């Protein structure tokens, strides 16, 4: 079989002939990881109604994927480096596909959350494997172009998830959105075994499992705190997670500094190029995930688009990512990553600043320019950052390098949804309270409406249905006086429904504008920090600083790996 005959990537004396086909497999694997989250955003309303999810349930349906995904990447990336990167990819696809089938069969909040957690474990295997296999398969001269296509795929997945999920939701239930991943994962498994060459690290040293477990503790606890605190209050769980994250991080750093071959040489973060690139990735996805979280809600609830229409209207973002990726592939070799990353972050800040103009009268046209600018910014900034992060690691640690990049991405995204999502909810509640002050609407209805924009429109719809019932009773009433009273009641209820719907739309639009302002400030400050950190002159693939010396030594080791 050709599968057995395939030479390991490290032993090839010339570039792998089918490397671009292999890249297609890696991008396909990346596609389903990102789509797993973006597809869920448009399926969430149907899932909430069908399963009777509380706001806490829905939050953990979304984030049950994130905690194992972020926590396990570094350890699983190192295991993939040692034993088999392709094996990690295939195993991850199997686990991910199994979790998707589990999600399709789930019939309660608990089982859906469990299914999402299984998918998160699969994603933690897949994500670092895609980058490490890319870096091992492509020669240095072509690696930046391959990473650019990898990044562009993530942009495509951001918009493709809602489009595909929206198309399914027109004729099928929310559970069908889990099945999107199954045929893609099956194709990717077969294609990986046929087209992706085996690869693993050249050394056979023992894995630093203590460091790996400490990374699981502090990263998992940090993500849990980010989710729990802003959304559910700073009670014992959130505070305990914060303490565990802080203690775990200190223990991890101290252990890694003393270990002769750490799972992650934390001295790399003293390198300006490496540190600046990780900060840029985290900040960008803080902005992107946070903005995507509230933009999809605005399009669905306030502007009234269904799931498919919402997905289609996010496509300008995906198209702009491809254009930005093409531009950065041409610009970065000429002007350096400092300028392209800086331009991208300035563009991202400008996109969020434009969203501060959103109000109750805004139409979809007001969102097109911010979406395009944000997509261009992603394309410009992220590919050079990922290339710089991967370039800071020797060939023997490519899985760890991919895990570091992806952990920065996931921590940024988690912070974006937690911080901007929490701010959005608070701002919406405050604006709705102001908009309905002095109204004759029932206090219980107002309390319910303040929970979320979806709940607000549900309350307005409920009042409207009562108005219709009163009007129907008025027509059937034989007593003219009773009919007049029912008509008056129907009119008051109808006016209350309109008032509630208008107040909800206005409050959420104002909340979007306020949240975007905070996001723009965060990303703007981050832009300055990244500009200070990134060196003006390129330092090469691996920085010749203290952080890179251990990697240079490892890179000289013989690549005597066997097929994985």
From TrEMBL:
| One Pfam family named in its UniProt record | MFS_1
Question: What's its membrane topology?
Answer: Multi-pass membrane protein
Subcellular localization(s) per the UniProt record:
Cell membrane
Query: What PROSITE patterns does the entry give?
Result: MFS
**Stored Gene3D superfamilies:** MFS general substrate transporter like domains
> Compositional bias (Basic and acidic residues) at which positions?
550-564
Identify the stretch(es) annotated as Disordered.
541-564
Recorded protein name is MFS transporter
Native source organism of the sequence = Streptomyces bangladeshensis
């Amino acid at each position: 079989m050709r599968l057995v005959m395939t030479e390991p990537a490290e032993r090839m004396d010339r570039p792998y002939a089918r490397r671009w086909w292999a890249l297609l497999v890696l991008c396909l694997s990346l596609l389903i990881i990102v789509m797993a989250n973006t597809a869920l955003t448009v399926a969430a309303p149907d899932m909430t109604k069908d399963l009777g999810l509380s706001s806490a349930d829905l939050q953990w349906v979304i984030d049950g994927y994130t905690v194992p995904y972020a926590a396990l990447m570094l350890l699983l990336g190192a295991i993939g480096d040692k034993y088999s990167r392709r094996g990690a990819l295939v195993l991850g696809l199997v686990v991910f596909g199994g979790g998707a089938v589990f999600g399709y069969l789930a019939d309660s909040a608990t089982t859906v959350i469990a299914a999402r957690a299984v998918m998160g474990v699969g994603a933690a295997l897949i994500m670092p494997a895609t980058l490490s296999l890319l870096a091992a398969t492509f020669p240095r001269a072509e690696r930046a172009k391959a990473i650019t296509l990898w990044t562009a795929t993530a942009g495509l997945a951001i918009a493709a998830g809602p489009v595909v999920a929206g198309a399914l939701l027109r004729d099928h239930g929310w559970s069908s959105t889990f099945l999107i991943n199954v045929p893609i994962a099956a194709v990717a498994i077969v294609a990986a075994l046929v087209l992706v060459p085996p690869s693993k690290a050249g050394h056979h040293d023992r894995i630093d499992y203590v460091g790996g477990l400490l990374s699981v503790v502090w990263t998992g606890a940090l993500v849990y705190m980010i989710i729990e605190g802003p959304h559910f209050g700073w009670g014992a769980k959130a505070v305990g997670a914060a303490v565990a994250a802080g203690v775990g991080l200190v223990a991890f750093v101290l252990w890694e500094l003393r270990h002769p071959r750490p799972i992650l040489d934390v001295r790399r973060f003293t390198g300006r190029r490496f540190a600046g690139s990780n900060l840029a990735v985290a900040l960008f996805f803080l902005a992107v995930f946070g903005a995507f979280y509230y933009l999809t809600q605005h399009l669905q609830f306030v502007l009234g688009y269904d799931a498919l229409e919402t997905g289609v209207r996010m496509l300008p973002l995906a198209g702009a990512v491809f254009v930005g990726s093409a531009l950065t592939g041409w610009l970065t070799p000429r002007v350096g990553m400092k300028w392209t990353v800086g331009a991208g972050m300035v563009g991202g800040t400008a996109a969020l600043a434009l969203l501060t103009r959103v109000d109750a009268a805004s139409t979809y046209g007001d969102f097109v320019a911010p979406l395009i600018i944000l997509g261009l910014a992603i394309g410009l900034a992220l590919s050079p950052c990922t290339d710089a992060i991967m370039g800071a690691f020797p060939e023997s640690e490519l899985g760890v390098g991919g895990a570091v990049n992806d952990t920065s991405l996931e921590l940024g995204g988690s912070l974006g949804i937690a911080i901007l999502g929490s701010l959005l909810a608070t701002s919406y509640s405050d604006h709705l309270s102001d908009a309905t002050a002095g109204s004759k609407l029932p206090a219980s209805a107002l309390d319910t409406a303040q929970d979320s924009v979806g709940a607000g429109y549900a309350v307005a719809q409920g009042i409207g249905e009562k108005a219709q019932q009163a009007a129907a009773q008025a027509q059937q009433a034989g007593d003219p006086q009773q009919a007049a009273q029912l008509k008056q009641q129907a009119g008051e209820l109808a006016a209350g429904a309109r008032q509630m719907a208008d107040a909800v739309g206005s409050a959420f639009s104002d909340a979007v504008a306020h949240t975007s302002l905070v996001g723009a400030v965060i990303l703007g400050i981050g832009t300055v920090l990244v500009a200070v950190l990134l060196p003006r002159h390129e330092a090469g693939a691996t920085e010749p600083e203290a952080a890179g010396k251990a990697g240079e030594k490892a890179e000289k080791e013989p690549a005597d790996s066997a097929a994985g």
